[in-house]
Structures are given as structure tokens and as C-alpha cells.
Design goal:
single chain; 52 residues; mainly alpha; 62% helix; 0% strand; elongated
Length: 52
């Protein structure tokens, strides 16, 4: 059974690393967060006064 040369393992590692970094960068930059004005209006404060 033939074995892979070390340069082939290095090429595979570099290839999969580039694919992983590219995929993560695309997912990171494609996310659009909501504007902070909308999130602050939706926060409802309900103070709880405990009377022991």
C-alpha cells in the first residue's frame, strides 16, 4: 500500500486551512446585526421589590 509523501500532507493541511478560514470569514461578514435602537426599545424593566 503506498504511503503519502509529507509534501502531500502539507498541501492537504494548507488547503483545508484556507477553506476553513474562508468559510468562517464569509459567515462572519454575512451576519448583519440589528440596530441598537430597536433592541433598547424592546427591553422591558420589571423591578421586583421583595418584602420579607
Amino acid at each position: 500500500m503506498p504511503q503519502m509523501a509529507p509534501i502531500s500532507w502539507l498541501f492537504l493541511f494548507i488547503t483545508f486551512s484556507i477553506i476553513l478560514i474562508t468559510f468562517n470569514a464569509m459567515n462572519y461578514f454575512s451576519f448583519l446585526p440589528k440596530s441598537p435602537e430597536m433592541t433598547q426599545k424592546s427591553i422591558k424593566q420589571n423591578p421586583m421589590n421583595w418584602k420579607w
